[in-house]
Specification:
Largest sheet: 2 strands, antiparallel
Structural class: mainly alpha
Radius of gyration: 27 Å
Helix content: over 70%
Strand order of the largest sheet: 1-2
Distance between the termini: 53 Å
Strand content: under 5%
Shape: globular
Number of helices: 19
Number of strands: 4
Oligomer: single chain
Order of helices and strands: HEEHHHHHHHHHEHHHHHEHHHH
Length: about 500
């Protein structure tokens, strides 16, 4: 078989670019080619934007042509070569601490030249807290890398850094919309990672346990007036109970059938919340849910409020920071428990069940208990997140717990790498934080119209991300994980176990 000539390759590339241009034209025609406007008669009129449409079509065709002529041949040559360790990555790993010190020195020089004394002191306090927290993490958690320790340090000092960069008023948006919102999905991703990533049970109704936790807290807090920290474990236990109830009917199901049943369970919970009006108030939802307090001190402007108690000027920022550290603690607790469980026999049983259920049974592992514990643990953490969501919002309704939420959490787990804690956190930051960043890009409204809301296209973005990940990294962003159990050193074995007497 003759190798394709340059002319043949060019012809194929041009053909692919033409097909891409046609697909882009038909897909973007209703989105960009037409725009509805309101005329003087208060009627909707249709305007065309052909120049903008053809510009995007030309961009898509050019990108496809560049990929076919440049990127694809480079990938083929790279696949045929013997891969050597990257010198750049090896240098970065070896000199990570030195590079950190160099960056710190540059930061201090900048602060000395351009910042006032008060700003220098604030920055110095943030930097000191950053390194102290990182060192504490490495001291408390054995085997943690500097990268993970600095990541934890960053999320700990994130509120102080936001206040230093944007001020008191501007930091509320960053701490709430970015920090708290992302951490909620990180915690939900950690919980679903137990069911999907470790146990291999495809759960499409995970939002049901999220809803159980939220409504458990909302109803009990409004009815009996219990505090948040009293109801937090109760909400988790109730969600775990429902997880066990879901686990029993699906013990014999696998694959697509399991996914369908879990999807139905999620919809059943949502319909119950809608139709049991006497208890849940139906579509109207629950309002006036009590907010968490700081050791009994409310975050309000009264004389007994948080600001007045500590002699501060009232600001909603204090409650936002308190909620941020509350969800951060819950997320870190979820991660810590998940990592520890993975190293226990139950965690190894989950992974064995994920790899091969028949082989798992042949090893004597009780698959019934293994599946039920996976559903219960994942549901419990979803219940914790749901109770926090209800306390943060002060209002919940069935519309907050639709299938799209389950799809979002599942997308985060798959994109990050099933079974990987770091991958789930990165995927949540990219997917949830990326949508929030799109809100700040004002030039998108000039392209798509003043009423453009990027959150409406969230699932479209998730779909593109899923396709890209399946093509380039089928096992997720973080596909390599350390084994659950391994021998750290060579050990002698008793002669009663092996003939020679040595392992």
């Amino acid at each position: 078989m003759e190798a394709p000539t340059a002319r043949t390759e060019l012809g194929r590339a041009v053909k692919d670019a033409g097909v891409t241009a046609a697909l882009a034209f038909f897909l973007l025609l209703p989105l960009i080619g037409f725009k509805t406007v309101q005329n003087m008669s208060n009627e909707l009129a249709l305007e065309t934007r052909w120049s903008l449409l053809f510009g995007y079509v030309a961009l898509a065709a050019t990108g496809r042509l560049f990929y076919a002529l440049v990127v694809a041949p480079w990938r083929e040559r790279r696949a045929m070569q013997v891969r050597q360790p990257s010198a750049v990555m090896a240098f970065l790993r070896a000199k990570f601490a030195h590079l950190g010190i160099l960056a710190l020195a540059c930061l201090l020089i900048y602060a000395h030249l351009y910042l006032e004394l008060a700003e220098r002191l604030n920055l110095a306090a943030i930097v000191v807290a950053f390194f102290v927290v990182g060192q504490l993490v490495r001291w408390l958690v054995s085997g943690v890398t500097w990268t993970a320790a600095f990541a934890v340090s960053f999320v700990v000092v994130f509120p102080a850094l936001s206040i230093w960069l944007t001020g008191f008023q501007g930091s509320i948006k960053w701490i709430d919309n970015f920090g708290i919102q992302i951490l909620i999905y990180v915690m939900l991703g950690f919980g679903l990672n137990i069911v999907v990533g470790l146990a291999g049970l495809l759960d499409l109704g995970y939002v049901a346990f999220y809803a159980v936790g939220a409504y458990a807290y909302g109803l009990l807090a409004k009815t009996f007036g219990f505090s948040f920290f009293m109801l937090l474990p109760l909400a988790g236990f109730l969600a775990a109970f429902w997880g066990i109830l879901l686990g029993f009917p699906v013990l014999r199901l696998r694959g697509d059938y399991l996914a369908i049943v879990t999807l139905a369970f999620g919809e059943i919970i949502r319909l119950v919340l809608i139709n049991w009006v006497d208890l849940t108030n139906g579509y109207a939802g629950l309002s006036g849910i009590p907010r968490p307090m700081f050791f009994g001190i409310p975050f309000n402007a009264d004389d007994d409020g948080f600001a007045a108690t500590f002699g501060l000027e009232f600001s909603p920022l204090y409650r936002t920071i308190y909620l941020y550290y509350l969800i951060l603690g819950l997320a870190l607790l979820t991660s810590f428990v998940t990592v520890r469980l993975r190293r226990l026999p139950i965690g190894r049983a989950w992974e064995a069940l994920r790899e091969d259920e028949i082989a798992c049974r042949s090893l004597g592992i009780n698959t019934t208990n293994t599946k039920l514990t996976a559903f219960a643990m994942g549901a419990m953490f979803a219940g914790f997140a749901g109770s926090f969501f209800a306390a943060r919002q002060g209002f919940i309704s069935p519309e907050s717990f639709t299938f799209l939420e389950s799809a979002t959490i599942l997308a985060i787990v798959v994109l990050g790498g099933m079974g990987s804690q770091i991958g789930v956190a990165i995927a949540a930051i990219v997917m949830i934080g990326g949508i929030e960043i799109l809100r700040e890009l004002d030039f998108l409204k000039e392209v798509f119209g003043a009423d453009f809301d990027p959150t409406q296209y969230r699932m479209l973005v998730f779909g593109f991300a899923m396709v890209a990940i399946m093509v380039w990294r089928p096992r997720g962003l973080i596909a390599v994980r350390e084994p659950s159990v391994f021998l750290k050193e060579r050990k002698a074995i008793s002669g009663s176990l092996v003939k020679e007497g040595h392992g």
